[in-house]
Specification:
Number of helices: 12
Low-confidence stretches: none
Strand order of the largest sheet: 4-3-5-6-7-8-9-13-12-11-10
CATH architecture of the largest domain: 3-Layer(aba) Sandwich
Radius of gyration: 22 Å
Bound molecules: zinc ion
CATH superfamily of the largest domain: ANL, N-terminal domain
Structural class: alpha/beta
CATH class of the largest domain: Alpha Beta
Number of strands: 19
Mean pLDDT: 92
Distance between the termini: 48 Å
Largest sheet: 11 strands, mixed
Length: 440
């Protein structure tokens, strides 16, 4: 996409000098802290002894304890008012929107919004969509049932606010969705990376080449981390600009990619983003160094979140962005802290496998990584399914090339198991391509 004349959703906020942004964030952080202490029983107890007026500089913020997801769960479970418990900071009758986390890592956490706080979430997503080139001329197709999770709801309402025409395709199955995209000549898609690739596979079975026969020019992805190789492959297959964003039910969507496609801009000054070191989980790390992201939504009031530990491994970019936005940019490269495993003395993240396979092996249509324990040694097996057009005579060469590339990238040796076409499940959301069988 070409840079446009009018390229910012909020031209003033998105180009404020950094000192001004930081001033606003510090002031808003103090306000958020005050609100949390006064209005949420959970924070009243947790932040006992910490006074907002003591936070005078950005450095002072690290004195405030981080909030962990487990604490949120405990503060809701069995507490009144029902569902939201000690986290709720507004009267129940003001709530108008319900969302929850997926609960894949335990009991779900519930996150409501008032009408006003929901409009703020929508406004923030407008900045994300606008940076990704979504305009009022677009017809946006959403191939999902939105369910109880926040991302696509936020995307849906933000696209409407931008003036796009929104086509909700959740009630259809994949072939009918592709047909509908063609029939209405949708120009933009919201997707998960995995489902974006799956749609390509199904479209081709239908005799449709997404690049030539459909009109999708831009796509924004949500729901799971997207390695750069996956993003590039989606661009190639769809003939579209593909953008990433970062969000979650607890903080909402908080960062998005601009047309430079180099990292994701944090939506400042609505969010305060910090990075702490992987070992101590408390020391700040400078730009360019891998760390764990900690986020504070500065304006959302229903359920305050102060220094929420996202457990995502990232780096902050050192350089400023050519798009002119002054916000910091992050690269989401290292997966989840919880997913990092030490295997034979080496830190391994399952996202590395995705990076290699999606980036270098278009012959692969599906894969999964399985970790098992055999006698004393942990064993990593990549189960891989090739496109039916790949003849068995090519398997041997592919197998050794995949093994070699994985070794180079991860420093670990994989066993490669080839599965017959159609033999692997089709993953659509979240990182279920990695199975750790050593814990069963
Ligand atoms: Zn930019």
């Amino acid at each position: 996409m070409k840079p446009e004349e009018n390229k910012y959703w909020n031209p003033i906020m998105e180009t404020l000098p950094r000192e001004r942004l930081l001033d606003i964030e510090l002031k808003r952080f103090r306000e958020a802290l005050r609100w949390a202490k006064e209005s949420s029983p959970f924070y009243k107890q947790k932040l006992h002894g910490i006074e907002p007026e003591d936070i005078r500089t950005m450095e002072d913020i690290s004195k405030v304890p981080m909030t962990e997801k487990d604490e949120l769960r405990a503060a809701q479970e069995g507490k009144e008012p029902y569902l939201y418990g000690d986290l709720l900071a507004v009267p129940s009758e003001r709530l108008s929107v319900y969302h929850q986390t997926s609960g894949t890592t335990g009991k779900p956490v519930f996150f409501p919004d008032t009408y006003e706080s929901w409009q703020l979430c929508v406004e923030i997503w407008c900045a994300i969509l606008y940076a990704a080139g979504f305009r009022s001329t677009d017809r946006v197709f959403l191939p999902f049932v939105y369910n109880v999770y926040i991302a696509f709801w936020q995307g849906h309402y933000a696209a409407e606010k931008l003036g796009c025409e929104v086509v909700p395709g959740g009630g259809l199955e994949t072939k009918a969705r592709i047909q509908k995209i063609r029939d209405v000549r949708a120009t933009a898609l919201m997707n998960t990376p995995t489902y974006g690739l799956h749609m390509v596979e199904v479209a081709k079975e239908m005799g449709i080449d997404p690049k030539k026969d459909l009109h999708i020019k831009k796509m924004i992805c949500a729901g799971e981390p997207m390695p750069e190789s996956t993003r590039l492959r989606l661009e190639e297959e769809w003939g579209a600009d593909v953008y990433d964003h970062i969000g979650g039910t607890e903080p909402g969507g908080w960062a998005g990619m601009c047309f430079q496609k180099q990292g994701m801009h944090v939506i400042e000054p609505y969010y305060l983003h910090e990075m702490v070191d992987l070992e101590t989980m408390s020391k700040p790390v400078p730009p360019g160094v891998r760390g764990v992201a900690v986020i504070t939504p500065l304006c959302r009031r229903c359920i305050p979140l102060i220094r929420f530990n996202l457990k995502d491994v990232m780096t902050v970019r050192k350089d400023s962005c050519a798009c002119g936005r002054t916000s910091i940019r992050v690269d989401q490269i290292g997966g989840r802290v919880d997913d990092l495993r030490k295997i034979r003395g080496v830190f391994f993240s399952p996202s590395v496998v995705e990076e290699v396979i999606r980036g270098q092996f278009p012959e692969v249509v599906e894969f999964e990584t399985v970790l098992t324990q055999e006698e004393v040694m942990p064993v990593l097996t990549l189960r891989v399914e090739f496109d039916p057009s790949i003849g068995e005579s090519q398997y041997k060469e592919l197998r050794s090339r995949i093994k070699e590339k994985l070794k180079i990238r991860s420093n670990l040796t994989f066993d490669i198991e080839i599965i017959k076409p159609g033999g692997l499940p089709r993953y659509t959301l979240k990182s279920s391509r990695f199975k750790d069988l050593t814990k069963q």
